[in-house]
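pinned: reference chain
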Amino acid sequence: MDEPGKVELKKSILAIEKIEDPMARAEALATEAENINPDSPLIGEVFQLVLDTDPSFGARNRAYQALLPKLTPDLLQHALSMVEKHENEKLQAEEDHET
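pinned: its structure tokens
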């Protein structure tokens, strides 16, 4: 990635991090995920922002769908482990609620 493109992406990431409204943040991430170059050295940062975003917004799923084909095997493995972790936490919360 050329340096000007990397600088612009870094600025976009910083701007997304400052968005307080979770729905607006998810929308911005979905747009960034759709447009990010698969070779970008910052794809991991965008992916981490998606992981940290409230899962109740559909835009987060669009961001995942846009990013998944672009992820390196290491990031893809991380994604799968995070999904498993979230599912386990959800199941545990449901079990705790029932008792």
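why pinned: DSSP finds five helices and no strands in the chain. The first helix runs from residue 3 to 17.
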